[in-house]
Amino acid sequence: MNQPYVRKITSAADALSARVLAARLTAAAGAPAVEQARFLTTLTARMRESLGRGGAELTLTARPSAADGTTLVRAVVAPVCAEPGQTPWQLTLTGPGPLTCEPPQPEGPPDTTPAEAVLAADEETAALLRQLDETEEQLRLHREELHQTNQGVLALHAELDAAARTQRELLEAERAARGEAEKARRLLTFLADASAAVTASLDQEAILRCLPQLLVPEYASHVWLFDEPDAPAATHSAAAVTAARCDRPQHAGPRPGGLPGVDDLPPSALSPDRPLLCIPLTVRHTSGVLTLTAPGDRFDADTSVMLVELARRTAIALDNARRYEQHRDTAEALQRAQLTDLPAAEGLHLAARYLPATRGLNIGGDWYDAFPQPDGSLLTVVGDVTGHGLRAAVIMGQLRTALRAYAIEDDSPARILTRLHRMLCHQQPNLYATAVIARFRPGDPHVVWAAAGHPPAVVRAPGGSVRVLDTRPGVMLGVPLPFEYEDHTVELPPDSTLVLYTDGLVERRSQGIDPGVELLGQTLAALGDSDLADLDGCAESLLKSLVHDSERDDDVCLLLCRPVRTPDGEPE
Questions:
Q1: Are 395 and 334 in contact (CB under 8 A)?
Q2: Quick check: 466 and 479 in contact, CB under 8 A?
Q3: What is the rounded CA–CA span in Å between residue 524 and residue 521?
Q4: Measured between alpha carbons, how far is 54 from 77 in angstroms, rounded to an integer?
Q5: Would you say 287 and 281 are in contact if contact means Cβ atoms under 8 Å apart?
Q6: Of the candidates 324, 292, 328, which has an alpha carbon nearest to the alpha carbon of residue 201?
Q7: Could you report the per-residue pLDDT of 404-432, keeping only the tens digit for each?
Q8: pLDDT at 440
Q9: What sign for the dihedral angle of Cα 220, 226, 231, 235?
Q10: What is the chain's mean pLDDT, rounded?
Q11: What share of the chain is helix, strand, coil (3-state, %, to 5)?
Q12: pLDDT (0 to 100) of residue 360
């Protein structure tokens, strides 16, 4: 349609003719039915409005677009009686392609009757309705698809929520399991450390002092102990007395504790607001009760199990300490009972000291002895049996008795040691001893001595010089091989001092024996003649310098021998 269609719209027939032409033109442009219906409806409404105002002039054009090959249909309605400044109304429609045919241009009256126009309009309406039906069907399908999608999304959300809840539950379970594992680890670590602390000592008082330091304030606010189960009930809680009598842990509190292996009792008058946990200290018999006051309003079940186990280990530690003290006291009593009262000897002063070990069961085995011979000489002996405790004390007594018996028949220190060696190899295999024997004769400035694996004797001359008798000693007594010991002679003028001792005086684990022997010599050299005049005081000075300031892992025997002159120059 190269020429525009222009027509005066002064009547309904004119408007009908214009509408029919516009319908053919938009149909020829291939416009969609909905767009075509919208275009025609709007145009008809505008022409109807113009008829009420005296008519209008309609201009229809259809021009192809050079850019994209579409067709642009335009309708312009200019009112006949336009007001000043009023612009014509226009409407455009774009067809998807070029015109399929050239619509005729009516120049006269319309060639379509109103009936045909109505039928044509019905066809347009039917086409529009079909398209609307198709659109509605598509919308229905889209709604169903959307509904199914929504149902899937809802199901997915439900699954995600369920998965999230499951994950939260798993996380909570894992967190709880980790908490329980950490709690168990903490309790086991504490139990191990506390067990090591209570078993580290063999002193009952130290063990009892250790418990409150371990348990307060995390596991208990107060700790009480009593050692006698039959103590008066007024001094202890009823739960503690019940625990001692029944030999079973008791819990007393405002409400039942429900602790494993623990009986529940009413609240205690000593602690009405806080629970008490009373655990008997039992090994072979109940020796006491451990009473704990809860740090909070209740005892935890796992904590109570740990406390019961700690009480059991504490009871074992207390029992070991008690048995150790009994064993130690018995060994020390036996040891001291067998030590010799030093005899009075002509021209010879003697002083001796014995100190038991202060650590461990190391008592027993060290001894000193001094006794006269039938020929008037005096034998002095210092010995040390390997091992400790009651057995060592008993063997020491046997050796001491055998030595005295052999000395009656022979006064040679070497031959006495040789016979002791044979006896010990025969009667006590795998048991060894060391010993040193020194023989003094009245008026003789020489001393005969022999040693069997013993620390070297030390001599202090009157002028203050110190000499170590480091002649190589024989083997230890009891070593399974034949051996003959040798006598040695050393000059010991009056006012000299011979020091015999056991290794506990000079030996330290971290240093060995040589530094101790050197320190003994230095201490002797530092003493003056006035100090040596009192031989007992001299012994105390030596002990104070070498052992009194430290804990002793071994017994100590010390024997000082000092020949003296009488005022007239003869031996005293």
A1: no
A2: no
A3: 5
A4: 13
A5: yes
A6: 324
A7: 999 988 889 999 999 999 999 988 888 89
A8: 94
A9: negative
A10: 83
A11: 45, 20, 35
A12: 53
Report which DSSP code applies to 571. B
Instruction: Compute the distance between CA of residue 572 and CA of residue 555 in angstroms, rounded to an integer.
Output: 33
Please give the pLDDT value at position 35.
Answer: 85
pLDDT > 70 fraction of the chain, expressed in percent and rounded = 87
b or e along 201-238 (b: 16 or more beta carbons within 10 Å of the residue's beta carbon)?
Answer: ebebeebbebbeebbeeebbebbbbbeebeeeeeebbb
DSSP assignment of 121-151 equals HHHHHHHHHHHHHHHHHHHHHHHHHHHHHHH
Q: Is 49 helix (H, G, I), strand (E, B) or coil?
A: helix
- In contact, 269 and 246? CB cutoff 8 Å: no
- DSSP E strand stretches across 15-65: 56-64
Q: How high is the pLDDT of residue 364? A: 59
- Residue position matching structure tokens 């009986």: 263
DSSP string, 67-85: TTS-EEEEEEEEETTPPTT
Beta carbons within 10 angstroms of residue 147's beta carbon: 10
Q: 185-222, pLDDT tens digit by residue? A: 999 998 999 999 888 888 888 888 888 888 888 888 67
Provide the pLDDT for residue 204.
Answer: 83
Least confident of 46-50, 254-258, 548-552: 548-552
- Three-state secondary structure string covering 290-332: EEEECCCCCCCHHHHHHHHHHHHHHHHHHHHHHHHHHHHHHHH
Mean pLDDT of 355-372: 75
- Closest to 389 (Cα-Cα) out of 408, 367, 362: 362
Tokens of 389: 């405790």
**Cα-trace Rg, the chain:** 61
DSSP 13-26: HHHHHHHHHHHHHH
CA separation for the pair 72, 70 (Å, rounded): 7
Say whether pLDDT at 299 is over 80.
Answer: yes
* Residue 287 pLDDT greater than 90, yes or no: no
Nearest to 278 by CA among 251, 314, 305, 312: 251
Helices (H) and strands (E) in the chain, counts: 11, 19
Does residue 5 sit in helix, strand or coil? strand
Q: Categorise residue 17: left if φ over 0, alpha if ψ from -120 to 50, beta otherwise.
A: alpha
